[in-house]
Structure formats: structure tokens, C-alpha cells
Specification:
Chain lengths: 357, 357
């Protein structure tokens, strides 16, 4: 159960998940002389498996395989929040898991997340309601006197499993589409802008926060992240750390906020992992979020989170990646591609970091 | 024989050699969505094999294995210059090899290298002589009227296979130790400082040069590289490009110089590959030498070679690496470790890049 922290070079960090976040975590670990072992249901061609020291294909419910995997590692983490709670608990019983299974438990369910943030951490979120029937939605809209967004409590990302509700017809349509799933309704927030912060917290409770990021979405998928945000909001890091302290969080966490016209912040959601809105850190002249997460998981001192450059990150979605040669020819533009074979529509294929003008 | 240049993401670059240079090349290629296949006589625990997409253990003279390896790749390169000429020629007959087999041929033999640089490229080197007997050394010392260094023509690195000769006793001792190998003698140069430049050259003859680097050696092993050098010598890049143009070189090349008290430069040696004195580029806010080499080999546009920060690179040799936790705690210090299991004396285990004060 105890690993020799801090993990010495040559130790192995196990990562659940084999997408681009796992890939960039594995690359960062390699730079520090740390090995990675990826566990995922996907094949050896998946983004993280291609670059990790070891790779196990296995289902997230295969307890025997997960036990073997955990035992082969010195510490464990994950690149996405949809690992079953039981798997996380099993893994944590075998080797130190950061962020902990309880952080995952909070963050993988929008309802428990909203309750934790507002009630335990005392940080503002949009008004929300547990939804068990079409009438619950109707009552919620009456209580907030306006439109709302109905979302699945689990497994949503990039706008999937979300429907904006303005009328009874919308309610009926939403119920037809999502009524078989556990749902939450959140008040529709007429925000001024979407911002996020990436913070790291270590095992001793020490923390390091990157500057405020301004995010622009297209078709519900992150399009650009600009760091630092053209206008700061100094509350963001304080609120994020309040949540992280309440969770006794270890690792990098992203906190996404809506900023209201009066400048106040409401948490949209947290991600218990490295996050797309932190990819600019790779080319900002400081420790990047991937290395920062690895440092926290391995109980190394946290790295420098003060960027030397301003950066605009742009996601390459689907066919965007076909323009790689143009991006490669742009002076000062850094290209990061994820090794995905097929450029399907809406699929994150890579990103570019450009100097902010 | 022809690959679809520029190599699209998902293509595979084959690399001969599995040391730290191959490792950092593989990590840079992964960032660009390019796969790597490492070929080396070492095992899967070797530095580059740990992070590459594919790895083949094989001898550099195993023509069948090399043929299979080359056919599995879209383009080929190498991380060190001691691949047999026949192997390079075979590889080049199957897939594009950059730098070419003829560059390797010139650079792997100190005599052909010195002759090429001085006679073909017209760039100054220390006076040198082909040595076939102890008397040849004596005659050479008389001709230069001073001390010399006797070196093996091939396979020398980090001061190995080099003896300073000041007397007849030294000649006898050197002959007893090295007399069975092909030798060269070079005039001992009372240099003011050792400097190097890292330049890249593309398939169309375009080039990109990093600033002058000042190098300090300890026990014949590179200790620190400072970029930019505290005092510039603008001839260095011009001379390096003269040599690279004469070689029709493709890729990153390091040129090491002695700077004489009058400021003139003499080439000490060239390395047809990425080079230890270019490791600072990883944390200088520009395209690093590893990505730059991959870009040249893949025929992508060359990246930005203008650093945004000044950096001092310090090698971690042998036990130095045991202080990793101290380096990790230094704000602004970037750590790069090579995944080598055993910290033997004189072995390069990693390096750190610190901001230049």
C-alpha cells in the first residue's frame, strides 16, 4: 500500500486510459526518467499505448487484470473520470491512487459534483436539481424562472448528453432522448465568458496555479484557450483551491467557470485530471500540466507554474489536422499530434500552440 | 526508394541506436504524431526502446534484420556515427537515409573528416597527420614544433582513445596502448575556449542555426553548455554551414570548434546527429534540436531556431543523478533523465537546463 515516495526515477506510474491525455502524461513521465504503464480497453495503437513503457488491454471491470496492473506499478492515476468507482476503489486498495477514488466519485457524477462544490466547498455553481421526471424539469424551470440545461449525470463530454430546455416541447423531446438515464438540470447561465484555471496540489497540501485561461467553444467542443486571459479574474484560483482543499486533492485539476456580467464566477464543472484548456502550458516556458501532474502523483516538488510566454492553444478537430503542413510552416507555432489513425468528425486529433499577439 | 515526403503524421521514422539521443528523438517525433522504430543491439530496457513505437534488437551487421527494419520504415536516420558503412549503404538502398551514408562515412573517421573539412569544405582544422608508426608521430611533432594528441581514427568519444604526446616516452606509451588501431595525430591547440553550433539543413538546402554555445568539459566529458555563449563568434554558423553544404547534409549537425586567442576558429570535430551541446534547446522556447532533426528527416519545414531564453545545460554524470530530488526542487530548472538503470561512473544519466543568470 505504501510506495517509496517520492518515486525515484525508474519507478512506474500506472495510468488508466489511453487517449491523448495519457499520451502526453506518458511523454512527460519519460522526460523525468519515470516509466508508465497504460491500462485501457483499447488496442496498442491507441494514443497513449504507442508511447508508454508498458500497455495492458483490459476492461475497466476486469478485476483480475486490474489487480495485476496495479501490482506492476508504484503509483496510479487516470486520464479520464469515467472509470467505475469499484475499479478505482480496488486500485486504491493495492497502490496509491491520485487523485483519490473519492475525488473521482465526486467528479464523475454531475449531481454529486455540484452538491460537493456548493455544499462542502462553499463555492458557487449554477442552480441545479436532481431530475427524476419531466415534471421535475418543469418545476425547476418555474423555480429559476427561466431556461435550463438538462444533462446526463455521468459520461457526458464535449456537449454530449446535454439539451437546452426552453419550453414544454423541449422537455418532452429531452425526456424521449435522455429519460432512461440519471439526469440533472442546471439553470442556463447567460455568461459573459468561459474561463478556467489549472491548479496542482501535492500530497503535503502545497499548490501551484497557472494563470486564468479564456476558452472559446465551437459546437460544444473547446476551440481555443488563451493564456493568460486578456482580462484577469483573481477569484478563480482561490475558488479552485477551495474545492481542491475540500477534496484533499492530489494532482492537476481543471476548474471551468462561467463569468457573469458582474464579474462573479460560477463553477461549470471540474475535471479531476489534466485538461484540454491546459495544453498551452506545453509551450509557455514553465513546467507543463502533464509534468506537473506526474510530479504531484510521484510526490516530487511541484514545478514552476509561472509562464514566460503568452500562448493561444487551438484544437485540431477532425479534418483540421489535414492542415498540419501549413501549421508546421508557421514560425513559432508548436504542433502536438495524438497519433490517432482516423480523423473522424468532432474527434480531437491534435492541437497547436501559437504565441499570443 | 522514394517516400512520400513530407512524411505525413502516422509515418514511421527508423532510428539506428537506442541511447539517450534516440530516446529524445523518439519523444520529439511522438509530439509530431510520427512513429519511431529503433534498431540497436541493446535490449528493450535501453533508453530509446522504452519510448519508441517499435523496437528491434539486432546487430549492426545483420543484413537480414536491417533489411526487414528498413522496409518497415518510411525514412531512416541514426543517433550515433559508428554504424558500419556497409549497414548505412544497405539501409540507404532501401529507404531514404538522412544524413546520408556518405556524410556518415566522412564523419566516422577522424582522418577523412579532417581531410574533408579542410580540403573539400575549405574550413580550418588543427594540423593533422595520418599515423602508421611511432616515427610518424615524431616527424609530425617536429613539423608542428610542439605537442600533439594521438587519437584512434574511429569509435572515440568522451576522450576515449586519445593520448596527449609531449615526449618520446609518451610516443612509446601511446604506441603500446593504441598501436594496433588506425590512428591520427592532431596538433595540440592552446585554445581560449571550446564552442559549438547546432545547425539544421533541409532537403532543399534550407538551413536554421541556433546561437553559439560555450562548452566546458570535465575529465574529457561535456560538463556544461551555455547558450547563447557569453561572447559571440559570428563565424561559427557560417563555417558550419560551409561544411554542411559541402556534405549536402540533411538533418541536425553539431560542429565543435576551438577558439584561438585571436578569435579565429578551428573545427575540432563534427557530429552528424543531434548533440549533447544542443540539449539546452529543449527549454529555450524554440523548436528543440530533436524535433528539428525529425523535421529535417521528414522533410517538414524547419522550426524556429531563435531561442527566447538563455539556458545553461549541465550534464548529470554517474552519481550526479542521485541528486534528482534537489534539482526537482529548484524553481525553473528542467530535468531530463534517460531511463538508464545503472549510474556507472562517467555514464551520462541525464541533464538539467537552468535559466542563464
Amino acid at each position: 500500500m505504501t510506495a517509496p515516495f517520492p518515486l525515484a526515477p525508474g519507478s512506474t506510474i500506472g495510468i488508466f486510459g489511453s487517449g491523448q491525455l495519457g499520451r502526453m502524461l506518458a511523454l512527460a513521465a519519460a522526460r523525468l526518467g519515470l516509466n508508465t504503464h497504460i491500462y485501457a480497453p483499447t488496442g496498442p495503437d491507441s494514443p497513449a499505448a504507442q508511447v508508454a513503457t508498458e500497455f495492458t488491454t483490459g476492461d475497466y471491470t476486469d478485476e483480475a487484470a486490474i489487480t495485476r496492473f496495479a501490482k506492476s506499478c508504484d503509483a496510479l492515476t487516470y486520464e479520464f473520470e469515467n472509470i467505475p468507482a469499484q475499479t478505482a476503489a480496488l486500485a486504491q486498495s493495492l497502490k496509491p491512487l491520485s487523485p483519490s477514488a473519492s475525488c473521482l466519485d465526486v467528479a464523475q457524477d454531475r449531481l454529486s459534483e455540484k452538491r460537493f462544490i456548493s455544499e462542502k466547498a462553499g463555492v458557487a455553481v449554477a442552480p441545479f436539481e436532481d431530475i427524476k421526471s419531466p415534471d421535475d424539469i418543469k418545476r425547476f424551470m418555474q423555480s429559476i424562472n427561466g431556461a435550463c440545461v438538462v444533462k446526463t449525470r455521468r459520461f457526458g463530454y464535449d456537449g454530449k448528453g446535454q439539451i437546452i430546455i426552453k419550453s414544454q416541447e423541449d422537455i418532452d423531446a429531452a425526456w424521449a432522448q435522455l429519460g432512461d438515464k440519471a439526469l440533472i438540470a442546471e439553470a442556463f447561465i447567460p455568461f459573459e465568458r468561459e474561463v478556467s484555471v489549472i491548479c496542482a496540489r501535492g500530497k503535503a497540501g502545497q499548490s501551484a496555479c497557472y494563470p486564468l485561461i479564456e476558452n472559446v467553444h465551437r459546437h460544444h467542443i473547446l476551440h481555443t484557450s488563451t493564456s493568460p486571459a486578456p482580462r484577469d479574474n483573481p477569484d478563480a484560483q482561490k475558488l479552485a483551491l477551495k474545492i481542491m482543499n475540500a477534496l484533499d486533492y492530489v494532482g492537476v485539476m481543471a476548474t471551468e467557470f462561467f463569468e457573469l456580467p458582474n464579474g462573479s464566477l460560477m463553477v461549470n464543472e471540474i475535471a479531476p485530471r489534466v485538461h484540454n484548456s491546459g495544453h498551452w502550458t506545453q509551450d509557455a516556458g514553465c513546467t507543463d500540466q502533464f509534468e506537473q501532474h506526474i510530479r504531484a502523483v510521484a510526490d516530487w516538488p511541484l514545478g514552476d507554474a509561472t509562464p514566460k510566454h503568452s500562448v493561444v492553444m487551438t484544437n485540431l478537430i477532425g479534418d483540421d489536422v489535414n492542415n498540419w503542413a501549413d501549421f508546421a510552416a508557421e514560425p513559432g507555432t508548436a504542433i502536438h499530434l495524438y497519433g490517432k489513425q482516423e480523423a473522424r468528425q468532432g474527434r480531437k486529433m491534435g492541437h497547436i500552440n501559437r504565441p499570443q499577439k
